[in-house]
Design a protein that fits this description.
It contains 18 helices and 19 strands. By secondary structure, it is an alpha+beta fold. The strands form five sheets. Strands 1, 2, 3, 4, 5 and 6 form a six-stranded antiparallel β-sheet that branches. The longest helix has about 35 residues. It starts with a helix and ends in a 23-residue tail after the last helix.
Amino acid sequence: MVNQQTVHEVALNIAVKYDQLLNAFNEITLCAKDLFETRQYRELFTKQQLRYRLYGNYVREVLDDTHHQMGSHIDELAYWKAIKQEFSRLIANKPHRLNSETFYNSITRKVFFDKSFNADIEYFDYTDYAPAPKTGNEEPIYDIIDCSHFSPVVIKQFLKYFKFNVPFENIDRDAQRIFDEMAPTIIHQKSNLYLDRMEILKPVFYRNRGAFLVGRLFYKNWSMPIVIPLLNESNGIFVDSVIYIPAEISIIFSFTRASFFVYTKYPAQVIDYLKAMLTHKTVGELYDSIGYYRHGKTILYRDLMNYIHHHDDKFIVAPGIRGMVMAVFTLKYYNFVFKIIRDKFEAPKNCTREFVIKKYEEVEINDRVGRMAYAHLFENLEFPRHLFTHELIQELQSSCKDSVEFVGNKVIVKHVYIERRMTPLNMYLKQANPIDACRVILDYGFCVKELAAANIFPGDLLLKNFGVTRHGPVIFYDYDEIAKVTDCRFRRIPEQSDEDDMRGNVEMITAEPNDIFPEEFKAFMAPEGPIGEIFLAEHNEIFDPKYWRDIQKRIQAGEYLSFYAYDQYKRFHMHKDEK
């Protein structure tokens, strides 16, 4: 017999604790505006890590409460069916209902950690994404500027809408710059500058040193997204660029970057707005981008289950060089890869499973500066065995027995990382045309440099450990050897003379685990031929220990280095020279 009082207490506690979690999340998020205005960027990064850990802390707290409340009934399905019904009633009118459901699932996944997903006691549906239904109670998440045509005056209204406590350095100049940049594209697309309205998304998106303003232009059946990055320096706030091409905006909201600080009571409506701008961006990734990682994970799982139930596609061994630490597989037409830690690692790898897991956890909370892929960890995923190719089954059975179990016609994956699929850099260079090959080999060097500026040394710099996204940037995705740049010792290789060799006076090079010899990088970072020469012309300093030591000094001196989510050529470089 199910005790209804217990059912109500458990459901109410989960609902109340999620409200508390959301309040704590929003309280931290609200700090971003003040930290941007006072230029406390390191503190913003600290707040980001604190905010990321909130969810796990609350899950553990609620799990302890639930064990205490339910006692021996903790794993009885009849109770959890009733709890789900009561929880649904309690959250029915909440603007964050979908996120509350995800929090509820996080509790049941801890209770039934060794069981497959159960739709009777957990929230799940096979329907495709649809905008959140309007209840009539929520406030609009955007405002409208009515206007007859696109002009600096309209842009200035847009900029002045946001009440910063720091003045603009030169708002008229910035409005004119935005107009000069966008007007030719608008005229090319529609032969005039007429507009019906300009929408302003109310929340500001804060990250790193920047504040991003988001909106859209509308005229009849035509629309254009607009994202305006702001920076704040000694002379005040200024517009650093304007981004209006969807593919370039997509990079700003990339899975390779830390989440934005976006204060809103209506996260689902914000996601709907962003999805309308970025139709090819997955909803889960958009939730990740505003800090709702666990709900992003829920959406990813639902998308995956939807896909395998509605498509005739099989899991295959991922193309590329076989990894020594990870077994990687994918679906041929699905844009994600699945990475499982192998039972044993081939030489020269000498790390442990626990070490690899720790490295992935470090990447989760770090500022990935657009150069490291975010991977969602899943446990106890269940798939039909017939979806796996014979080659993949052999691979998993031979090297991943600790993480994969074959039970009858099912495959149970106990521990797997799911991340966006990319083309391995070594494969990309083999098939790319000369222009694209030049672009990505240069970006490979910029990737290494930007990671270094973020105090991240990749460790294994081989081309196969980097990938190229569909939008073109080069991303690092092999984390078992990453280290802090400040923890490394960058050394020169001792030089030997011919006389030393003849006399046998060859100095033995002794090296500690954290000793790095950058001169050795050249052998595998710079491909032979013209592509390698282009790389060396731009990035030759990477092979000099002094380059790395200088970065160490800057980081140790407390300097917070700049990162941009858009190409440097898009920046309005001359702002300091114009008055």
